[in-house]
Amino acid sequence: MNILVTGGTGFIGSHTCVELLNNNYNVIIIDNLSNSSIEVLEKIEKITSKKPKFYKIDLCDKEKVKEIFNENKIDAVIHFAGYKAVGESVSNPLKYYRNNLDSTLTLLEVMKEVNCHNLIFSSSATVYGTPKELPIKEDFPLSTTNPYGTTKLMIERILKDISISDKEISIIILRYFNPIGSHKSGLLGENPSGIPNNLMPYIVRVATKELPFLNVFGNDYDTHDGTGVRDYIHVVDLAKGHIKALEKSINFKGIEYYNLGTGTGYSVLDLVKTFEKVNNVKIPYKIVNRRPGDIAACFADPTKAYKELGFKAEYGIEDMCKDSYNYILKNKSN
Ligand code: WQD
């Protein structure tokens, strides 16, 4: 089967391409390399001994996207491509609405024109806003607190409407919690340019002494140690969740939503202490003010994905901390 992966050279996309190739799917990647590098392709090949087909194009370019579908008989699409920095989306909402919505609408129009009926969409737990209770189930109320999250929610609504109008379509929406870690080989991982927004990439920069200390955004939340609690899931587990979703998608029509999380929440200080222990490093930190828009705690009820997809995260927080650091140690010279 031929699977088109948009954003396939990105952090989650590249790990998913590895799992797809390992499961004998043919992979075609569309990516404009705005937030990833072409070197990822050779790393995917090094891991799997298979080279995905790659097109460096912008998903908003409808003619080019149509050409790709005409050149390759695409059986299903996994749609990762999109801007994802929460802070940037607040300061530049138009960039996010234009890119994330236009690219998705272009993809959906072409899929309809060529009768490609299977879509897996990369959504985010951010669509739950501030959850009314924990753990979070898929039927909880949805709300967003930043333009990035709102683009995800808007796309979910667009997909819902399409599933009502097109009885042939099969849409699976995956709501990721907090993906961290990296492939055991150390060839793929997360190393954003500039000062990282997210916790794990920041901790790693402190571990390598590129940054002097971690700012802990508040220790006065209603959590076991006052710092923010999140459901961290290993990116390889997350990638494997897409294989399970693809298997379901092939024999399914309609739309379904699944949380991809572990069901366990860890605080900022839990992560710091675990990272220090497994990597034998010190992570100095300072308690500072809360980050605007942050919620106290967020973790998944993973039951539905387990019951309906047969998906269960296997890696623990120690693996995530070890693998995150291993990637940077293996690629520090770059
Ligand atoms: C985790 C915890 C912070 C940095 C975001 C997006 C979400 C998804 C994942 C795309 C929080 C604390 C963080 C730091 C800190 N992205 N923290 N110091 O905010 O849960 O989710 O990334 O889909 O959509 O919202 O992740 O890693 O930024 O923060 O104390 O320097 O770490 O307050 O409690 P978040 P995060």
Kindly describe this structure.
This protein is α/β, with parallel strands linked by helices. The protein has a domain at 2-180 and 232-263 and 300-314: NAD(P)-binding Rossmann-like Domain (Rossmann fold). The chain contains 11 helices and 14 strands. The protein has a 7-stranded parallel beta sheet, sandwiched between helices. Helix 1 (11-22) packs across helix 8, helix 7 packs across helix 11 (317-331) and helix 9 crosses helix 11 (317-331). It is globular and about 55 Å long. The mean pLDDT is 97. It binds UDP-4-deoxy-4-formamido-beta-L-arabinopyranose. Residues 84, 86, 124, 126, 178, 197-199, 202, 214-217, 228, 230, 268, 291, 294 line the site of UDP-4-deoxy-4-formamido-beta-L-arabinopyranose.
The helix fraction, in percent, is: 40-55%
Indicate the radius of gyration in whole angstroms.
19 Å
- CATH topology name of the domain at 2-180 and 232-263 and 300-314: Rossmann fold
* Strand percentage: 15-25%
The CATH class assignment of the domain at 2-180 and 232-263 and 300-314 is: Alpha Beta
Distance between termini?
A: 35 Å
Elements, N to C (H/E): EHEHEHEHHEHEEHEEEHEEHEEHH
Q: Specify the biggest β-sheet.
A: 7 strands, parallel
State mean pLDDT (0 to 100 scale). 97
Structural class: alpha/beta
Looking at the overall shape, the CATH architecture of the domain at 2-180 and 232-263 and 300-314 is 3-Layer(aba) Sandwich
Strand order of the largest sheet: 3-2-1-4-5-6-11
Per CATH, the superfamily of the domain at 2-180 and 232-263 and 300-314 is NAD(P)-binding Rossmann-like Domain
Count, helices: 11
